[in-house]
Amino acid sequence: MDLTELTPDVFACLQPDLGLGCSNSGFVRAGGGAVIDTFWDLAHTRRMQELYAGVARGPVQRVVNTHRNGDHCWGNQLFPGAEIIAHRTCAELFGLERPEAMQMLCEGGDSPDPTAREMSRRLARFDFRGIVPLPPTRLVEDRLELDLDGLAVHLIHVGPAHTAGDLLVHLPAQRIVFAGDVLFRLCTPIGWEGTTAAWLAALDTLVALDPQVIVPGHGPLCGLEGPRELRAYLEYVEREARSFFAQGVDETTAARRIDPGPYAGWTEPERIVFNVARVYRELRGEPFDAPIAIGPLFAAMVELGRRRTAHPGHA
Length: 315
Known about the structure:
Layout lengths: L1 E6 L2 E5 L10 E4 L5 E3 L5 H12 L8 E3 L18 E5 H5 L6 H8 L7 H9 L15 E3 L2 E6 L2 E7 L9 E5 L4 E9 L11 H13 L4 E6 L6 H22 L4 H7 L14 H12 L10 H17 L5
C-alpha cells in the first residue's frame, strides 16, 4: 500500500493490483479532510488510515463513497462521526453485498466445489469479520459541489455504468479525478447494474473533464490514456459479443472464444465472462438493473481462468 502525494493537499492511497478487491482510495486534507473510498476489510482500511494520519491535520470529517461495492465502502465504520456522502442509488442498494457471505467464501478452501476453492484462494488476503456496513448519510442526485476551505471538490453522477450510483470526484483546480470503478486501469473490469452505452458515456464524461491525473478504482495512476483504453476494451467486447449473439452462441462459450488480444495482460482477463454476459442481457432487452446470476458467472470465470492457465493462448 502506497501513499502518493498528488498536490500538497491531495493524496492517493494505491494498492498493488493483485486481483479481486485491490482498490484505491484518495484523501483531500483541506477543509476538515475528505477520504474518497474506504477498503474492503477493516485491516486494509486501518493501514490506509495510518497513512492518511501521517499527513492529516485532524480527524476526517467526511467520507465519499464512489459506489456501493464493498471494496470501496466497507471500511466506513472506522470513521465514526464522519459525514458519509454517496449517490442516492448507492444508498438504496447498499445492502446488496454482505460481509458474512464474503467471509464464507474466504473459508471455502476445503470445499469440494472447485469454484469455492478458487474464490477462497483469491480472497485469502482479506478478512471480512467484524464489518458493519455503514451507509451514506448525505445523498447526491446529479451533482454536489463541496468547498473545502477554498479547494473545490465536485461530485458528478455518471451511473448506471459500473453501478447505478457511480460518482466521479473532480478537483477542477488541481486537474485530478478520482474515478472509482468507472475506470479500471490495466485491469479487466466487471460491471453490475448498468449498460455498456452508459459506461462508455461515463468514460467520455471523464475525458471531457480533461484531468492531468486520474486515480482509477483499480490499477495505477494514469492520464487520459486510461479511460481511452478502457473505452476501446468495452467497445471490442461489445462488438465481439454481438457477433456471437447473432450466431446463437451462448454467452459462456462466446466469452471463451473471444480472443483477449491486447488485453490478455490485464489483471484477471477471465472477467470477460461478466462483460459478455452484460452485453447479452442488453441484447435480450433486459432492464439495466435486472438481477444477475452471479454464482454461475463466477464459476464460468474461474473455469475460463483455469483453461487459459493450463493452455496459454487457447480457451
